[in-house]
Structures are given as C-alpha cells and as structure tokens.
User: Fold these one by one.
Assistant:
Number 1:
Amino acid sequence: MKFRWFAIFLVLILVAISISCSTNNSNSLATSGNGFLWLAAQGNTTVQAYTINLSSGSLSLNGNAVPTGNAPSSMLITPKADAVFIVNSGNSAPSSPGGISAYTVNSDGTLKVAGTITPAGPTPIGMATDSAGKFLFVANQGSFDLTQPGAQPGSISVFSISGTSLSAVAGSPFSTETAGATIGTGPVSVAVSTSGNYLYVANQFANTVASFQISSSGALTPLNTYSVGNSPSAVYLSVAQGTVPAGLFLYVANTGSNNVSAFSVCDAPNAFGCSTPNGVLAQVTGSPFPAQLGPVAIAMDPTAPFLYVADRQSNQISQYSWSSGTGALTPLSVPIISAAGQPVSLAIRAGTVVTSTTTVGIDYLYVANFNGSSISIYSLNTTNGGLNVLGGPVTTFSQPSAITVR
C-alpha cells in the first residue's frame, strides 16, 4: 500500500496545472515582438525566466533564476499578469513544508521573490485562480490510507489574492473527504469555471472529479462527484474559440487508464441541456478519448480548435482536433509527436501570422521534459493543428516540472 501511494505521488508531483492560465489569456496578447516563458525546476528548486521570439518561437535566457520552495510542482500567472505563484509540494519534514511561493513580474519578464512561502495543506500539488484573479485554489493531496497514524485528509486551500499577497479565506482548508472514509480522495488538480461560481477537482486516489460551489467569500460547498478514468492527474477547461465561450467543456487527463474524459459544463445556459446554471457536468458522447501512455497535462490552442496532451510514460504529445459543438476530440492525421524525456507540463503561446499565397497562423507549444532536463519547442499550424519540432530541445536545470507563458 505504501508503494502504491509513493508511485502515485511521484507522478503527480511533476504535473503542472498552470497551463490553463497560460493559454486562456493568449487571445489578448501581442503576436509580434517578444513574449515571456517561466520554467520551474525541481533539481535545483528555482524558476528561470526566458524571452520568447514570437517570429521564430526561440527562447533566450532572461535574467537569473530565482529560488522556489522544495519540489515546485505547479505554476500560474495571475490574470493581471503582475504576479506568479508556484506551488511547492515539499515533504513531511518541518524544515521543508509544502507551500506557495509568490513573485512580482517585472516589466522585462524577470521575476522578483515577494515575501516568504505561504503555508498550504499536506502535499499541495495543483492550483488555479478564477478569471478575475480574486481567489487562489490549491489542491492538497493528503494521505492515501487514512487509517494510518498521522494520516492527513485531502483538502482544498483557498486564498484571497492582493497583488503577491495571499490570505486564507474563512474556513480554509476545505476537506474533500467523506465522513468515515478509510481511503483518501487525493485531490491533485483544480479548475475554476468561467463564471467563478464552481470549482472542479481531480481526485487521483478516488478516480473522480468533484464539484464545489464557490461563495462570494471564496468558501466552498460540495456539490457532486463524477467517475472518470484511473488516476486522474489534471482537469482543464476549454478556452474561448471565436464566438464559443471559454469553459464550455471540462477535460480530465487519466494517467492510469491512458485516456481523456470530457464533460460539458453547466456554467451558463447552453445547448447541452443547461437552462439554469448549476455547475453540473454531463459526459460528452464518445468520452473517454484514447491517449498514449500516462497522460498528465492538457493544453488548448488559444486561436484554433486543437487540443494537446502530454503523455509522460510514452514520451509523446497526443494531437486532437476539438469540436466546439460537441466537445469531442478527434486524433489528427498524425496523432502523436515525440517529446524529449517524460513531458510533464505544456504551455501554448500565440505567435506570428505568415502570409504567402495563403495566411497561416503559427503558434508555439512549449513542453517541459522532466527526465530530459529540457524544453521542447514546436510550431503549431493553426490551420491543421499539426506540430513541427523547432530545433533541438533547450537544455534547462534538472527536472523541470512546471511551465507557463505570457
């Protein structure tokens, strides 16, 4: 039993949930000149800034790396783009607890450490913020076997955000366990609905997604629980596409069953049986959709209907077209492309528009390769969704674990 818990924890500590934050805002970003990328690494517990050349997708170091806490596992940039937060999973030692590092984002894209690490719950792994940047939600995995001495239940910590400062809301952390349970739920990833009224949590030990209502104060009230595949590692809400609003569908990367679950989200009236918003999820026809081995992270292109999944165990990226009308995923004609040593985190940055006889948008996909200690860079053709490798992997500090862009 202890071995199973350790194996699950090892997979999850690598998964970054910052992806949704790094892609959802890209529609409003400049597509010429430079962008920014940030990469956290567990090998030396730092975060490094890079400059993105939006004409070529290439990366260049931007300033010096700054320290994180122990075992950085997830990262996001706030909607105002003035702060970056990193969840550090830590361990049980009092000298290196899990918590949240905060950074000021300078105008040149470099980061400045802001204050000390804010404590979270037991083994914090994933996090998300609402679209207004009012609250930060952190998934605390807790213990697998709740009958063991010293076992800690899974929970969600909620903080109000003011710049780089975090303050726990009343009642935080909020338990994800049921009374009398002997096996923990294992919350590891969170996503906030577009309205900011609902929170969705991937429970890796329970093989479920749980929904909560979010009050105006940030307090959570449990709503429903939905079965998904084995060992869900990431939840991800669809981005806006043209007239299609953001957050219409929820996707779940199931690491243990090698597939992706998909649900429509009743966050606003829609064509999927949602007349009165209540946060309910309804499974998409055809779900779950097959992936390769060990899917752990999901990203959607911000400008075209394509979705990508990092398959850690097979060292690949799965490529899909996305139906805004049904939420279904269809593998592209070239369904996979190779990565460089256990891809664990994805981020997509809108790039240039190339005009020849036709006009083609080129975006860029960046992949953190944990075992490869590198970043893979791909051009993304927004007409057909196909990825193409841009040069060799960029060498990074060892064990890169979380990536985000702006």
Number 2:
Amino acid sequence: MASTYSSNIRLTKQGDGDNPNTWGEVLNGVLSLVDQAITDYTVVSIGSTNSVVLTNNNGSPDQARSATIEFAGSIGGAETSIFVYIPAKPKIYAVRNAVSANTTASDALILKVAGNDGVTVAAGNNFYISNGTSVFSVGNQGTAGSRDVGVCTTNIPDTSLADIRYVPTSVSSTIVAEKHFTKYVNVVGASASSAAGIKVGTNARAYNTITTIVSASACITIDFAVGNNFLTTLGANKTLKAPANAVAGQTGSIYLVQDGTGSRTLSYNTVWKFPNGSVPVATTTSAGVDLIAYSARSATTIDAVMLKDFKR
C-alpha cells in the first residue's frame, strides 16, 4: 500500500508493508517535520515581485510548516503591496514582520490564501489563523498607543473593571467621564504657544508652573494661552499691554519684580480693571516684589488687584 500524507502539515503516513528496511528513517523524518511545525523559526525574504508563495512540500521541510515565520526585506519601488500566499489548510501562524516600507504609508504585507481576501500583517510580532480559506488576526494589540477599545460588545477585550480606564496615548482622545488619579499627571512636551506644565497631584491639588516674561521693549505682552502664572522683572518703565488669547474665566497671577536699580513704574492697558478704578502703583524699592492677581471677565476685560511689597 502506497504512503500518503497528512492533510494539514503534510507528514508522511506510511502504507502497510512500505519501507520495510527504512521505516525508522522515514519515521525520524516525520518527527523532524513535527519538530519544525512546533518550534521552527524560518526567515522568508520578500523580493521585488508582487507576491511570495510559501513552499509547502509533502514529507519534506518547507516554509509554510514552520511554527514561526519572519518576513524580511523591504516594500517599495514598483510594488506597494506584496502578497504572501499560504496553503489552503487550517493552521496557526506566529509571524514577525520585520519588513520595511520605504516609499509610502500604503506599502503593505498581506497574508492570504489564493483566491480569497487576505489580512494586512502588522509590524512586529503577531499571530494569525487560517481556516483554509480566510486569514484572521488573533489578538494583535499593536503598540500601547494604538490599543483602542470600541463601544460594541465584540470590541471589549477580557479585562478587569480596574483596567477599563486607559485611553490611547499616541492619538487625540476625549475623556467623557470622571477620572480619579492617585498619582500626579505631568503634561509635558508642549511648545511656548500652548498650555503646558499642568500638574494634578493628590488631594485634587492642581497647579501651573510660572512662566517668565522677558521684554526688551517698553511694553509687556503676556500670552494667556501659555499658562496662568507669570513673572517679569522691571528693568525699565513698562506698560502692561492687553494679554493675548484671553478667555473668560481664566485666573492667575503676575509677579512684578524690581531690578537692582528700582524705581521702575508700570502703566496698564485699559483692559485691566482695578477696584474702585484706582490704578495701583508698583513698589519702587530695589528688588521689590508685587503680585497682581487677575480674573478674566471676558477676552477684553481683566479684573485685577495688586498685593504689594512682599518681604520678611
């Protein structure tokens, strides 16, 4: 009776009476192929053509039988997508995608069974299953920043209630429910034209770093979009201009520090309003420190009060 092969991973099935003098050798070959199917790591280099067919041999080593397959090489140039064809047999594939895409974001490595739709292989280490017709990704999480949780029951992964509290880190997200933090949150990486340095600590303590304003001109211009608290040293007589990007409801403070000479005066744009309409006069002593506490009633009306001459 002639030998045949198993249907999925193509192992030799010896027929009755076959290989009377070499059956042990054939059996060892089968065991080697089982070893390949369970533990082997095969590197497949893709070329410049638009498709790669994984080898699948009956009774001898091949690429498709390997437990883990690494795809290497690069996509680009004439082809933006390269199709990798696997046998039309059920199997689990552990895949390391080390292929580089060197032209556009549309470059893709696609795993498929001939004549059927495939699946784009994500970069890095992933698992895929085939039912002999279609290919499916299995729990590919990607990077932490891409791990979105949808709103349907099919989108929710198995997790504890304590862990349903994270949002993607690499894309814009909106938090629509209350969040409680037991450690401080430090917002970093902001530019000079955006809000930065906001820290939320324990006991609902929130604070904003002090932004130093350096002005070589006769006017001091403060950008309220940068923060809430500011400090400027008066090295000459100055005028505090209308702040840029003022928004109703913003509150904060402005430290005024006299330089080593002192006697510097401060005038105000008309958007600055004071109690009883009395414009405050800054402390004039050398190194004197005053504090203006402000609250934006509107974008063009800033209510303020000066606390003067801080010292011990």
